[in-house]
Specification:
The structure is a single chain. This protein is an alpha/beta fold. It folds into two domains: about 90 residues, Rossmann fold, CATH 3.40.50; about 130 residues, Rossmann fold (3-Layer(aba) Sandwich). Helices cover about 40% and strands about 15% of the residues. The chain is built from ten helices and eleven strands. The strands form three sheets. A six-stranded parallel sheet has the order 1-11-8-7-5-6. Strands 3-2-4 form a three-stranded parallel sheet, sandwiched between helices. Strand 9 and strand 10 form a beta hairpin. The chain is globular, with a radius of gyration of 19 Å. The termini are far apart. The chain binds NADPH dihydro-nicotinamide-adenine-dinucleotide phosphate. NADPH dihydro-nicotinamide-adenine-dinucleotide phosphate binds next to helix 10.
C-alpha cells in the first residue's frame, strides 16, 4: 500500500510548535521574531511566494515585512537595502526573493547578506558551513525534504538515494544532506543531471528517489523501483482549458502511473512545498534565538 507523505499536515504541526515557542518568547518579554523579504518587480510567482511566506509568518506570531522595489531598481539600491537589513536590530532574518531582474547580478546581492541573517542559507558562508557539517542555515527546500523524511520515520541509513537535479538551491544541497554521517542521513547518494547517461537505469536503483528537475511529469513508472520512497520537488502550473481555473498543478513525476509502485510518495501540491515555507520559519526562529542568546 502506498503511503502519502502529507507535507501539509506536517507543516501545520510544525507551525503549531513554532507558534508555541513564540508565545513563550513573548511571554518572557521579548519582541516576536521578525522575518523580512525583499521583492523586486511584479513577477506573479514571486509575489505569490512572498505573500505565502508573509501569511505563514503571521500564523506563527512572527512580525513580517516586505520591502518592494521596482523592476528598474539598480544593484546599488538593492545593496543599500541589504546594508540596512543587515544591521537593523529589529530584523532577525531576511530573504531576497529570486529571480532578480537580469540587470542585477544575483551573486553580488546574495554575497552581501549578513550570514547571521541569511535564513535562506544561500550565502557562501552558510553553504560552506553546511558542507562541512557545521551549524548553518540550511536552504529551505532541502531542509524541508529532510524534515519530511525524518519526521515520517523513513529509514535512510545505507539506502541508495538518487537525486535528479543539481541546482544550488535544491539538488546539490539535498544530496549533501542525505550523504552526511548522522542518524538522519547516511545514504549512499548518486546525483544526476541533464548530462547523465541512461538516467532511467540509475533511477531504477533508487531506494529513495528525489526528483528536482523542473520538467513536468518527466519521471514515469518504468523509471522507478518497486517500493521506492519518492520525493517530488517539482511544481508546475500547466494550462488546461477544460478546467474551471484554466490550469492544473503537477510535479516532475507522473503520479497517475508512478504512485502505485512506491512505498511512500510526496503529493503535488501538498508535499515538499509546505515544508519549504516552514523551514524558513524554523531558520528565522533560530536566527532570533542566536541573537537573543536563548
Ligand atoms: P533548476 O532548473 O535550477 O535545476 C534543474 C536541474 O534538473 C538541473 O540540475 C538540470 O541539469 C536537471 N535536469 C533538467 N533536465 C534534466 C534531464 N532531462 N535529465 C536529468 N536532469 C535534468 O531547478 P530547481 O532545482 O530550482 O527546481 C527544480 C524543481 O523544483 C522545479 O520544478 C521548481 O519549481 C521546483 N521547486 C519547488 C520548490 C518547493 O518548495 N516545492 C522549491 C524550489 C524549487 P543541469 O544542471 O545539467 O542543467
Amino acid at each position: 500500500m502506498t503511503q502519502i507523505l502529507d507535507g501539509k499536515a506536517l507543516a501545520e504541526q510544525i507551525k503549531d510548535e513554532i507558534a508555541n515557542e513564540v508565545r513563550h518568547i513573548t511571554a518572557e518579554g521579548h519582541r516576536p521574531p521578525h522575518l523580512a523579504a525583499i521583492l523586486v518587480g511584479t513577477d506573479g510567482a514571486s509575489q505569490t511566494y512572498v505573500a505565502s511566506k508573509e501569511k505563514s509568518s503571521h500564523e506563527v506570531g512572527f512580525t513580517s515585512s516586505v520591502y518592494r522595489y521596482a523592476e528598474s531598481t539598480t544593484e546599488e539600491e538593492l545593496l543599500r537595502a541589504i546594508d540596512f537589513l543587515n544591521t537593523d536590530e529589529e530584523i532577525d532574518g531576511f530573504i531576497v526573493q529570486l529571480p532578480l531582474p537580469s540587470h542585477i547580478n544575483e551573486r553580488h546581492i546574495i554575497n552581501a547578506i549578513n550570514p547571521d541573517k541569511d535564513v535562506d542559507g544561500f550565502t557562501p558562508i552558510n553553504v560552506g558551513r553546511m558542507v562541512l557539517g557545521e551549524d548553518a542555515f540550511v536552504p529551505a527546500t532541502p531542509m524541508g525534504i529532510m524534515t519530511l523524511l525524518n519526521r515520517s520515520g523513513i529509514d535512510t541509513e545505507g539506502k541508495h538515494c538518487v537525486v535528479v537535479g543539481r541546482s544550488n538551491i535544491v539538488g546539490t544541497p539535498v544530496a549533501n544532506l542525505l550523504s552526511r554521517n548522522n542518524e538522519h542521513a547516511n545514504c549512499t547518494v548518486t546525483l544526476c543531471h541533464s548530462k547523465t547517461r541512461n538516467l532511467a537505469d540509475i533511477t531504477r536503483t533508487a531506494d529513495i528517489l528525489v526528483v528536482a528537475m523542473g520538467k513536468p511529469e518527466f519521471v514515469t513508472a518504468d523509471m522507478v523501483k518497486e517500493d521506492a520512497v519518492l520525493v517530488d520537488v517539482g511544481i508546475h502550473r500547466v494550462s488546461d482549458a477544460s478546467r474551471k481555473n484554466g490550469y492544473y498543478l503537477c510535479g516532475d513525476v507522473k503520479h497517475s502511473e508512478v504512485d502505485a509502485k512506491c512505498s511512500y510518495v510526496t503529493p503535488v501540491p501538498g508535499g515538499v512545498g509546505p515544508l519549504t515555507i516552514v523551514s524558513l520559519l524554523q531558520n528565522t526562529l533560530k536566527a532570533f534565538k542566536q541573537t537573543h542568546n536563548l
